Amino acid sequence: MGNRTFTIIKPDAFGKKYTGKIIDRILESGFEILGARMIHMNQNDARGFYAVHQEKPFFNDLIEFMTSGPCLVMVIAHENAVESFRKFIGSTNPADAAEGTIRRDFAESVQNNAIHGSDSDINAEKEIAFFFTPNQIHGT
Ligand code: CMP
Predict the structure, then answer these.
(1) Which residues have any ligand 1 atom within 6 Å of their CB?
(2) Closest atom of ligand 1 relative to the 112 alpha carbon
(3) How far is the CA of 109 from the centre of ligand 1 (A)?
(4) Is the pLDDT of residue 1 over 80?
(5) CB 68 within 8 A of CB 77
(6) Is the torsion defined by CA of 68, 37, 103, 57 positive or negative?
(7) Dist. CA 111–CA 88, nearest whole Å
(8) pLDDT score at 140
(9) Is 40 part of the annotated catalytic residue set?
């Protein structure tokens, strides 16, 4: 089990000024932030980051959404980070997200779902490396 995961506060939540509230909840829930950067993804960033979904019917809309405004990318530390953080953010579709989760409270739809969390340790490390160099991450 890895102790790092990767997250994005997506353009919907960022645009609605939820970033501070979400960061408070992340820290209050015992996660540590090892790195953070505000970015505005271009087409290359978004297509590269979501390459695994390129055959999905929602891919083009997803790219349009993720390039529509700024977002905050972060490296998060916690024991069993991937699973703990996914539980914390809730199901992909906010309609299915448990009470008290970030998506339940801040997401609009299955696409505009406020926040991303890596789905495996391997993907967490790939996603961290996609947006961060080691010298941008505390403790590395
Ligand atoms: P995320 O966890 O970042 O991973 C892939 C993203 O694609 C997901 O969050 C949503 O933003 C989006 N997504 C996943 N499933 C669907 C769907 N059925 N329709 C539209 N967008 C989706």
Answers:
(1) 53, 58, 62, 92, 110-111, 113, 116
(2) 11
(3) 9
(4) no
(5) no
(6) positive
(7) 18
(8) 81
(9) no
Q: What is the mean pLDDT of residues 81-107?
A: 98
Task: Flag whether pLDDT at 131 surpasses 90.
Answer: yes
Nearest CA to ligand 1 atom 21: 111
Mean pLDDT of 83-100: 98
What ranges make up the beta strands (E) of the chain? Answer: 4-9, 32-39, 71-77, 115-117
Domain segments of the chain as ranges: 4-136
Ligand 1 pocket mutation, candidates 54, 111, 112, criterion most atoms within 8 A of CB: 111
Report, at the CATH architecture level, how domain 4-136 is classified. 2-Layer Sandwich (3.30)
The pLDDT confidence band at residue 107, using thresholds 50, 70 and 90, is very high
